[in-house]
Design goal:
Layout lengths: L6 E9 L6 H9 L5 E3 L12 E3 L12 H5 L3 H17 L11 E6 L5 H13 L10 H5 L3 H10 L5 E4 L5 H14 L5 E8 L4 H9 L29 E9 H6 L6 E10 L12 H14 L8 E3 L6 H15 L7 E3 L2 H4 L6 H15 L1 E2 L17 E2 L5 E2 L4 E8 L3 E8 L2
Parallel strand pairs: 4-5, 4-6, 9-10, 9-14, 10-12
Antiparallel strand pairs: 1-7, 1-8, 2-3, 6-7, 8-15, 11-13, 14-15
Helix pairs in contact: 3-6, 7-13, 10-11
């Protein structure tokens, strides 16, 4: 069997409620800034939840030409802008590589929900003659982000899209990791994007009673692990990573944010929306990823929790973490950055991977904001970082994502 290749992260890009570029995004994450506000894209007055974490001052036309805008849904536009950033940050030269050496593995949980909603509504209101756009299907299908990223940059390698609900980004990143490890690509652009601030998405999650109802105080609505948490806050955007074969990156003198050393997926096989109450599948995903990375839970310096601020989900993740630690007091710092960004569904893991790598770069643990009183069911010995970031030596970080249907995906990054 051929040896497995090491995998470095050499480029990052982000388009998120906390910022439209890496520097702004990271400043606001470290500074503990909430981004939740009344929904602006449509009138939310009829919905139980009327707020979300939305992009600020973002105009796609400032980044993409009219030809591209006409042929793409917002989730693809987010993907193109974030990957442009990551490619520029990485500095790799496509002209020096075979285009078949560079691939794209992207993710989106919902795909073109915005165009679907718009086109079907217009048809319903327009009478018997169908008036669908010829771009309806290309803008709708989830794989169009990976396709358009490759078209934009002439990348002819591996190319597809993963979908696993809120675990989507981590599954895409894991797949990219494995293809490079196996020697099937030198570089893969990966990550995920989501544009779920639409009437259909908000209405659907409201009907499930999954989102917070703190309409009078949206800034403090996302409060992971708090006794008064009442649901998640919707977010939107994209996160992008350039994964590169380690020696290839080192030889070209690339800056390496960290090494992806472990990744794993499991299924709860329990319920279509609820997490396993004891976190059995989540624990197994973390255990496999950590073993692959050659470390244990006790070696993890920082854990970016899935932590959506839902009553059931937060507890199941904490139980999963504790089951790995056993009776020992866990020294790992834990935080949920969804308290600031909201929950980007399929794109959540992508921006959280970016956060983990920036945390290692700057040796700082971002906080969980808004949480005042920790749920008494959460063991008091856990080191959940609240209110303010803390400076700590970080060598190993773990990122969790869990999705409807029981999808669990964990990633381990280590410093180099």
């Amino acid at each position: 069997m051929n040896r497995l290749h090491r995998v470095a992260v050499t480029g990052l890009g982000v388009l998120a409620p906390s910022g439209n570029d890496l520097n702004t995004f990271w400043k606001n994450i470290v500074g503990g800034k909430s981004t939740a506000a009344l929904i602006r894209r449509f009138n939310p007055g009829l919905f139980r939840t009327r707020f979300a974490c939305q992009l600020s001052d973002f105009n796609p036309a400032e980044h993409l030409d009219q030809h591209t805008l006409k042929r793409s849904d917002l989730f693809t536009q987010f993907a193109l802008v974030a990957t442009d950033q990551a490619i520029n940050d990485s500095g790799f030269d496509i002209e020096r590589l075979s285009p078949f050496d560079v691939g794209v593995i992207w993710g989106s949980g919902q795909g073109g929900m915005g165009v679907f909603e718009q086109q079907v509504t217009e048809y319903a209101e327009g009478g018997k003659i169908p008036r669908f756009s010829p771009f309806f299907v290309p803008k709708l299908i989830s794989n169009m982000s990976s396709a358009m990223i490759s078209i934009r940059h002439g990348l002819m390698g591996i190319n597809y899209t993963t979908v696993s609900a809120c675990a989507t980004a981590n599954t895409a990143i894991m797949d990219a990791f494995n293809y490079i490890r196996l020697g099937k690509a030198k570089i893969i652009i990966t990550g995920a994007s989501e544009a779920p601030v639409t009437e259909a998405s908000i209405g659907g999650f409201c009907a499930m009673k999954a989102m917070s109802l703190q309409n009078d105080d949206p800034l403090h609505a996302s409060r992971p692990f708090d006794i008064s948490r009442d649901g998640f806050v919707m977010g939107e955007g994209a996160g992008a990573l350039v994964l590169e074969e380690y020696e290839h990156a080192r030889k070209r003198g690339a800056f390496i944010y960290g090494e992806l050393t472990g990744a794993a997926m499991t299924a709860d096989a329990y319920h279509i929306t609820a997490t396993h109450p004891e976190g059995a599948g989540a624990a197994k995903a973390m255990k496999i990823a950590l073993k692959e990375a050659g470390v244990s839970i006790g070696d993890v310096d920082y854990l970016n929790a899935h932590g959506t601020s839902t009553p059931v989900g937060d507890l199941s993740e904490i139980r999963a973490i504790k089951s790995l630690a056993g009776p020992a007091n866990l020294k790992t710092f834990i935080s949920s950055t969804k308290s600031m960004t909201g929950h980007l569904l399929g794109a959540a893991g992508a921006i959280e991977a970016v956060i983990c790598l920036l945390a290692m770069r700057d040796q700082i643990v971002p906080p969980t904001i808004n949480t005042v009183t920790i749920d008494p069911q959460i063991p008091p010995d856990l080191k959940i970082v609240l209110k303010e970031a803390v400076k700590e030596k970080l060598k190993v970080v773990l990122s969790n994502t869990f999705g409807f249907g029981g999808h669990n995906a964990s990633l381990v990054f280590t410093s180099v």
